[in-house]
Amino acid sequence: MDYSVEPGLYAVGTPSAGSPVLVSANYKMSFDRLRSSLTGTDAWILVLDTKGINVWCAAGKGTFGTDELVRRINATDLPDVVNHNRVIVPQLGAPGVCAYEVRKRSGFRVVYGPIRAKDLRAFLEAGMKATPEMRGVDFPFRDRLAVVPVELVLSAKYVLLIMLGLLVLAGLGLNGYSLGRAASEGLTSALMFCMAFVAGTVLTPALLPWLPGRALSIKGLWIGVALMLLLGGWNLAFPGLASSWFEVAAWCLLIPVTTSFAGMNFTGATTYTSLSGVRREMRIAVPIQAAAAIVGVILWVTGRFV
Amino acid sequence: MVRLRYLSGVVTLALDEAKCSGCGMCLTVCPHAVFAMEDGKAAIVDRDACMECGACALNCPCEAVTVKSGVGCVAAIIKGALTGSEPNCDCVGGSTCCG
């Protein structure tokens, strides 16, 4: 699916030589959000080639950057279109754009606009002045959930592979290989793992501010603990989830490991975690997760032969 | 809503006051209000809110602000560790990854 827009200069309304120039990424949603926020005004939109990626991610990568901005200004003959020398760049483009270098190389001054397109009208009406709120990024519930689907899709391949592995290995037993066992107990194991993964990936972001701990691996761990308690209660009422105590012990490790890892993985989609912090977190969490996963798998496999 | 905070005392952000000209660009571009003006110069007032995006360092005309920015996603860090390089998204997930 292609969600990119052709780079170049676009008009909103009927802009003149004095109308403002807003810079955008060529991700369709970025572009659409920008132009709908400008409905009723006259403005130019300079769309950069960010390979269909949104402003903030592209800025981090460098594609929404100084070079591309200067290139696009020249390619669209912007100096001949407008009689001023200002381009309004969304604030989240700043990790990729060096304002003073753009000025030096193109003659255009970069004015950093608000974070959110919806604040643009107010920003422009105030004479290109931003309030502190316009310059701050938050991470509310809706935004946290909005990035969950991409995490699920990116991990799907690995999750399905592990589920398949559990399904196949479950057929092992003292009496040789049994397809029946694979189908029934294997399916249960595969679904348990899938449930843990989905719970970690969906609930850690959803409940982020209320889960204890600063590290996301810890926040994810709590989801796993809650899940274990729930499953324990379920098993008391409807026994038969696990085929042996070895398997119970295995899940006591594997479920929290899965949710903890899923939570930790969410660091890549937040608006506030730092690379240094993620490194520190991983240095401690990953060896523990790996060890617990290995022991858990050994227990689970042992449980096949008991 | 409770403001989300990450780990304390980890970021590589640094500000050399001697080089600062007080232009205020770092305040403008920072998405987490890490900086404030004090006595005509910039100052770090909320270091732990910094996410190391690098916007401040890139836009400082005096090279007063420095920070080590980079891809902060677990998959990229693992890949970087396995290949002995900096964290990178290249070929992790291919074109379906974050670009």
Strand order of the largest sheet of chain A: 1-3-2
N-to-C span of chain A: 49 Å
Biggest sheet overview of chain A: 3 strands, mixed
Q: What is the total number of structural domains of chain A?
A: 2
Runs of chain B in which pLDDT lies below 50 for 5 or more consecutive residues are 91-96
Count the E strands of chain B: 4
Q: Structural class of the secondary elements of chain B?
A: alpha+beta
What is the typical, i.e. mean, pLDDT of chain A?
A: 95
Structural class of chain A: mainly alpha
Shape of chain B: globular
Could you say what the CATH architecture of the largest domain in chain B is? 2-Layer Sandwich
Domain count of chain B: the total is 2
In N-to-C order, the SSE pattern of chain B is: EHEEHEH
* Outline of chain A: elongated
Query: The CATH topology of the largest domain in chain B, please?
Result: Alpha-Beta Plaits
Biggest interface found: A-B, 55 and 44 residues
How many helix segments of chain B?
Answer: 3
The tally of strands of chain A reads 5
Distance between the termini of chain B: 31 Å
Just give the CATH class of the largest domain in chain B. Alpha Beta
User: What percent of the residues of chain B sit in helical stretches (DSSP H or I)?
Assistant: 10-25%
Keywords:
heterodimer; A: 306 residues; mainly alpha; Rossmann fold; three-stranded mixed beta sheet; two-stranded parallel sheet; 12 helices; elongated; B: alpha+beta; Alpha-Beta Plaits; 2 domains; two-stranded antiparallel ribbon; two-stranded antiparallel sheet; 3 helices; 20% helix; 12% strand
